[in-house]
Amino acid sequence: MDLLFSTLTLVTFFPLVGVAVLAFVPAAQKNTARAVAFGTSLITFALSLILLTQFHAEDAGFQLVAQAPWFAFGSLAVEYHLGVDGISILLVLLTTFLVPIAIASTTHAVEERVKEFMMLFLLLEVGMVGVFVALDLVLFYIFWEFTLLPMLFLIGIWGGERRTGAAVKFFLYTFAGSIFMLVAILWLGFSAGTFSLPQLIQQGVAANVQIWLFFAFALAFAIKVPVWPLHSWLPEAHVEAPTAGSVILAGVLLKLGTYGFVRFNLGLFPQAAVQFAPLFGVLAVIGIVYGAVVSYAQTDAKKLVAYSSVSHLGFVMLGIFALNPLGLQGAILQMINHGLSTGALFLLVGFIYERRHTRQLAQFGGLWKVMPLYAALSLIVFFSSAGLPGLNGFVGEFTILLGAWEGYGAGWFAGVAALGVILAAVYMLWLFQKMFQGEVTHAENKTLPDLSRREILLLVPLLFFIFWIGLYPKPFFELMAPAVEQIVTNLQAAAVALR
Amino acid sequence: MTQADLIVLLPLLGLAGWALVLMLIDLAIPADRKHITGWLTLVGLAGAGVALTQWPSAGRLEAFGGLLVADGFAAFLTIIFLFSGAVAVVLAINYLPRMNIARGEFYVLLLLTLSGMVLMSQATDLITVFLALELLSIPLYVLAGLARPNLSSEESAMKYFLLGAFASGFFVYGVALTYGATGATGLAGVLAAERSLLLAIGAALILVGLSFKVAAVPFHMWTPDVYEGAPSVVTAFMSVGAKAGGFAALLRVFITAFPDVAPQWAYVLALLAALTMIVGNFAAVVQSNVKRLLAYSSIAHAGYILMALPAATHMGEAAVGSALFYLLAYALTTLGAWAVVLTIERKAGEGVALTDYAGLFSRRPGLALAMAVFMFSLTGLPPTSGFIAKLNVFQVAVQAGYVWLVVIGVVTSLVSAYYYLRVVVLMFMREGAGEALNQPLVNVAVGLMAVATFALGLFPSPLLQLAQQSVLNFIR
Fold first, then answer.
1. What contacts A56, CB < 8 A, 6 or more positions away?
2. Which residues, 6 or more positions from B6, have their beta carbon under 8 angstroms from its beta carbon?
3. Cis ω on the peptide bond leading into residue A229 (within 30° of 0)?
4. Which residues, other chains included, contact B27 with Cβ-Cβ below 8 Å and sequence gap of 6+?
5. DSSP string for A168-212
6. Tens digit of pLDDT for each residue in A391-424?
7. A65, containing H or E segment
8. Which of A134, A383, B117, B369 has the greatest number of beta carbons closer than 10 A?
9. Do B398 and A168 touch (CB under 8 A)?
10. Which of A16, A19, A71 to mutate to test the interface with B (most CBs of B within 10 A)?
11. What is the pTM of this model?
């Protein structure tokens, strides 16, 4: 009980304070609502930085644990049990970092029901951080499912024209994935006598049941990531979601899936993971190429970015199922990278949409002349997404490819995936050409104002990290290394046991 | 009659006695002030609640030579009955005058059917179970037809009566066969007797009879029509109270007297649960009338509660406890949803289509939010009471080895997400003329139930423990 009011609890639940305050803000005072939400999310970010100072990077296990009894089914206890390791703390930081940016991006984009929007956004933050820090399986599931509700409303109320369909599809798809995970969690809890993740990892799960448990979890995560061929909800949800929603959807929500793979599929079921790594490697590679090719065929900028996520997350999956330190570290770094660069991409698309109320590429062209600053910053972000050396995307993808080269025992996984890097450059440059180069073809584009100071300020923090990770990724790798090492040790032991 | 007998009978006496007194008082109350009868009914319910405190806090107290018992199981269910009765009264005070059916009989009949439910939860002899069944049912038949001369209400009452009488016939025949096989009607006596084919047939017939009451598939056909035709406030009460009453008998009879009447018995029960979940949820998908939607939803939820029956063969009291907690969560959420439905049904037959909910959020944000909470809880999404209830039932079933049943449970929950979500989508994401009455009393009740639905999802421990403790002496 003494650990209940820990920094971790504060980081997770502080946004609720903002929700409570917002409840008393009159609906007409839109700016007050914005300020409250922004302030709350900034304080949450500050709290997560405090968390980082308390974190011991050299230790592998879960730290800063908060644990208290919650409820019980007979002797089977469900606990309030939070903790972080080097992997989850990075993702917590990514979340608390992106949320204030996303909230600040809504100043002109969201004019209706601002207060409700902000409340939902802060609730979403609680759910997302909760998923990364929950160490009790039932608690994890609760946070996992809870993230669906705010997102359902964010897409369904503030989304584009076909928002309801997209919102419902998003909800049902992800809900469908997670129900089997619930059965698996219940079965695990009953057979092991505990829902505590560290305890389950320690006890180990019997080899003969790992396979179906592995797939029950994998389905939930694969839909969330999304792994090809389960991706069809993603383009719709992204296109219809408001900009801030897209930023968080791509930046954080998709990472819930990849995080789940690392934490549960690799952590709890190492033998099944070793057995089925090639399958997921193949799916990942297909996703990489498919996402890239489909991106190239898009005429809507937002849809293009959405499909590029399928490709990028294919890289993450490839790294995860390489099952070696390089692959995993690259994958985790790439999760952060994708959050930063795709978050920035959605912001950029949002900026132009606010000006022109269209995202059709045919409507643009020659914007470099009209909006030079916008074009320059876009170029950096596009390069980051395409994996240009010196920027963050390169570090992640390169490390993943190195890991994949070793990991799958067959070079062609990395070989085909490398094709994805080239294709990414193709569609990103093509996008750049369509939007910024050539002559200004549409009269209404001639008078577009360049980025405002607010918009620049939104991009600067993202660009800062894009450069930092690109030039000096060592601190990030060091933070996650012990935790990754521990997972890989387990996997190697499992691989030996299988032989 | 000993003092112990009296204590055991006290809540029942309170309800039935107050019903008789109220019938006389009601004569003196003018037709336009029947709400007074309503408030007086609440007094009676409170009185029954007080009487309940006289029961022993632990253990069991038998009365009338084993015909009745006062134990935690009965106490827990009685609380659910009294709660649903109280909500029904609060809703009826506004609803009945609006539909021009402000009749004092409503309250009297409500008290009588409640006393039948209380008796049902206490009955430990098949004869008392039958008595309770009739005492529960007959006032409900009349209540369903309360809106006479409204045709659909009359149809509803007629259907309910005919099929209910039919079900009672099955039940009585089952009791007769059971008596023939065992020479006993007391549940303890039946348990002690030798198993035989005749007993199995008797048990099967009793199962059929009680399945009618809880609307388990394939004995559910009456439910949508009766629910649709009856005045909504009666339907609201029926879908919670009558169902909990039916489950009181199902759980008590089948777990304490027939746990093992035939080798594959548990599978029959599991199949019943599976069918009920599947049919209830899939049929609900195509409904466009809210009352029918909630009718099928109530069938579906009967399926989840039924999971406790087969699970009880391995899990015993834990399974019963999970069913009790589910009933509580279901009562809270369903009554909340019905309360919202009632405020949207402004005139008889108007405002019961799903499209009447379109755009409700922009006019009545609080009400729409509460309805969303109820819908999510019925789906079983965290952090609501419906999630904890499903989790509990599923957990018990997994532990009893019924993983396949749980898989059906989660898949049908997914189906249910579709139709519950439709209500939410209509309220929040579509434009429309969704309008609702503004009644302070109902608003407060809806708000309280929504908060309780959340609170039970976030801090389930006290009531979860209560449900688990109240069944400690259930199986002997």
1. A63
2. B13
3. yes
4. none
5. HHHHHHHHHHHHHHHHHHHHHHHHHS--BHHHHHHH---HHHHHH
6. 888 898 889 988 888 877 667 888 888 888 888 8
7. strand A63-73
8. B117
9. no
10. A71
11. 0.93
